[in-house]
Amino acid sequence: MVGGASAVRGPPSLSRAIMVRVRRIEPERGMAALRRALARAAGDPVSHEHQAIPEHDEMTAVRWTLGLLEERHPGRSVEVRVPPAGAVQVLDGPTHRRGTPPNVIETTPTTWLRLAAGQLSWDDAVHQGLVAASGVRADLSAVLPVVEIEES
Predict the structure, then answer these.
(1) Distances from the Cα of 126 to the Cα of 110, 143, 152, angstroms
(2) How far is CA 124 from CA 65, 75, 115, in A?
(3) Element housing 68 (H / E)
(4) pTM of the full predicted structure?
(5) For 95-121, what is each residue's pLDDT tens digit?
(6) 8 A C-beta contact, residue 93 and residue 20
(7) Distance in angstroms between the alpha carbons of the first and the last residue of the chain
(8) CA distance 68 to 87
(9) What are the structural domains of the chain?
(10) Which DSSP state fits 69?
């Protein structure tokens, strides 16, 4: 263990970056990163006051929103993967202990952030092929969005 992080076991196909739990991200930092990442994804100009690397904002926002999802909907029946930023297991129900879980959701960081912030519906993401969802419980429509973005 390094810096309070603990390794999370998973299938070998996932990169090690996904397999490491990160420390809790403060809400103010997470929301600021989410706003900047969504603004960049939409092609909006972002304030020059914060010149963080775009990928850093995106990774911070993804990890923060995945953490919120995990806190609010604990369980081990569905694995949500957003490579290379992270993966969490959520929702009550049958659990798995080894190998690839039976219910897996995988998407890109930008799509995840749009889902998490309510800018994209679960159904639209699935129908547009922006989310790979396998298993009978691989549906997040009832738990999204995980954060509301207040008007500035």
Answers:
(1) 14, 15, 30
(2) 20, 25, 10
(3) helix 54-72
(4) 0.78
(5) 767 777 789 999 999 999 999 999 999
(6) no
(7) 39
(8) 12
(9) 16-134 (3.30.1050.40)
(10) H
